[in-house]
Amino acid sequence: MKAFNPVRLSGILRSGIFRCMFILAFLVLPQIARAQWQATVGAQSESLGRQALAFLPNELWIHAGDSVTWTFDSDEIHTVTFQRPAQIRLAFQVGCPGFAAGGSGSFNGTTCISTPPFVKGQSFTIAFPTAGNFKLVCLVHANMTGVVHVLDLSQSLPYGQDFYDDQAAEQRKSLLSDDDHDGDREHHHDSGHEHSGTNTVMAGVGEVSANGGGFQTLIVARFMEPTKVIHAGETVEWTNFDPLARHTITFGVQPLNPVAPVNATRDTDGALHGTVNSAADNVHSGLLGAAPQDQVQLPAPPLGVTRFRVTFPNPGEFPYICVIHGNLGMKGKVIVIP
Length: 338
Ligand SMILES: [Cu+2]
Description:
Layout: H1 6-32, E1 36-44, E2 50-56, E3 59-63, E4 67-72, E5 81-82, E6 104-106, E7 113-114, E8 123-127, E9 132-137, E10 145-151, H2 161-176, E11 200-211, E12 214-223, E13 227-231, E14 235-241, E15 250-251, E16 265-266, E17 272-275, E18 283-284, E19 307-311, E20 316-321, E21 331-337
Bound molecules: copper (II) ion.
């Protein structure tokens, strides 16, 4: 039988205490460490036609000292921007002014921080050193907002990263699969060149929704009947059904400034109207969309251009594009038969 060894016993005791301390440290570690949270910016369908203009998720509860990495996931541009409270809204081309350099920055509510317009594959990390509730916006899209609740270390957080990942996936699916409208389906009428049913084209559709974090928006950047077949001398009319996104109907050269119409005059009902005689003609609608809403204490904005019409006197094939969303494949064609 081995002799009793007091030194060895004390060693075992000590290692036991260390083990306990180690486990204790491990248990409290998540509350002490600066956690790194993940969220996504934007989502899109495979065809790029459906764009979720949304922070996914758009509401996070984190601890002071934590940081959040936003990863961009769409071909449509977005920014991650935190303005100071009551700061005048900034143009996305300008930023705060200026854009946060590198891949990371910090925000405590006193100095605005903004990424440049980013697309799929890019990411940006922001640290939040002080407690507060901070509104998150995209400078490109008005109805795309969120909030980051930065809590004191003494308070416990309601959710973990898994919850946010699930919520982001649900919101993404819900936005992109919205089926209230006939989005993104391609109707081909050019086989046999039969005359299209009507001479009207839905130029985009969309939907704005809201939750506790703010606004999330779906836009369908598509001409719903991209190929129209008409007879020479007829007129096609485009209407935008999207509450947020503006689109253009552009034949010929794409203008540098998409706002101003080119070779279009007003019909008596206010719609703009152009004529395309040949594929060499340049006709551009300017920004097409529903009349903007009046806002308290601000001058009533003008009706704007809610309908666009083009008359085609001669047979031929006339492709057109939305100059704002052409990169997402928002294109169409008018085939004029005799
Ligand atoms: Cu467009």
